[in-house]
Predict the 3D structure of the following.
Amino acid sequence: MARKTKELFLKTADVIIENKSYLTELDAAIGDGDHGVNLARGFKKLKEKLETESFESRSELFKLTAMTLISNVGGASGPLYGTAFLNISKVISEYELSLDDLIEVSEEAIAGIQKRGKAEAGEKTMLDTIIPAAESLKNSRANNLDLNTALNNCLKAAAEGMENTVEMQATKGRASYLGERSIGHQDPGATSAYLMIKTFIENFLK
Amino acid sequence: MVNILIISHSFKIAEGTKELAEEMKQADIDIQIAGGTSGGKLGTDADLIQEKLESMDSEDGIVVLADLGSAVMSFKMVKEWLPELKQKKIKLADAPLVEGAVLGAVEASLGKTLDEVLAAIEKKSIINKNNL
C-alpha cells in the first residue's frame, strides 16, 4: 500500500508544481501572491525526499508530507496543510480504504486546518472546498451509495465549493485586508485544495 | 530575565526591530529573531522558530512578538511540540511588533516578570501616536 501512496504523493506534487503560476496568479489578486510558489517549493522538496527515501507505511508517508510542507512552504498553507496531513497520518488505515475511512480522513483534515486557522465554512478559504467534499462523502454513506459514485460526487462537491468562493468575502488571512474587494476572485487556497482532492480521487478511481 | 523572540515575514523587519529594541535595553537580555524563509524570501521558517524556542533560555520566560498570519500560526504550532513546562513560559504578546519589542526590551531588562512584561506591552496606549 505504501508504494501506491507514494505514487499518489508524487502525482500530487507534479500537479501542484504544474499549477504554480495559476495559484500564484489567483493569490496575487487578493493576497500576497505567493501561494503557488510556496506550495510548489514544499512539494518539490517532498518529491526529492520521496524519490530518495523508502517507506513502510501510508502513515509514514503522510507524516513525511506533513513535516516537509511545514518546514518548506513558508506561508500559512504550510502549517495548515501540514497539520491536516499530520492528523491524517494518525488515523490512516494501511488496508484498502472504505468510504468510512475516507470520511474519517476528511474529518481529521478539517479538524487540523481549523485548529490552526480558526476558520469556518464561508470565509473564502481552503475549507470551502474541503468541507463540502467531506459533507458529500457523508451524504453518500447516508444514501448507501457505492464507493465510486461517492468519490465522483465528492469531486463535484469540491469543484462547486471552490467555485463558490468567487462570490465570498474573505474574513481570514491576508485577503481579509481587502474586505469587499476580495469578492469576485476565486480563492487560491480553495483551488489548491481542489487540485489535491482531484488528484487523490482520480488516482483512487484509476 | 525575560527574553524576547521577534518573528516577522521579513528578515529586514525582524533585524531592524531587534536593533531598535537592543538600543533601549537596560541590562543584558537575549533578543532573538526569526525573520523570513530559509531561502531569504518573505514568509515564515517554522524550523527556525522551533530552533530558537528550543535554544533560548526560558527560565524566566520568553515573550514572543509576531507580525502576520503564518508567523503567528507557525509559532503556535511549534510551541505545541515543546515540553509542557517550557510551553507555559513562552507567551505570544497581543502587541504591535515594533512598539512591543522596544517596550518589552525595557521592561524585561528592568527585571520584570513574564506577566508584567506582557501587561505592559499589551496596553492599548502602546499604539497611541497623536498624544505623545
Q: What stands out?
A: Chain B has a mean pLDDT of 96. The longest strand of chain B covers residues 3-8. Chain B is about 45% helix and 15% strand.
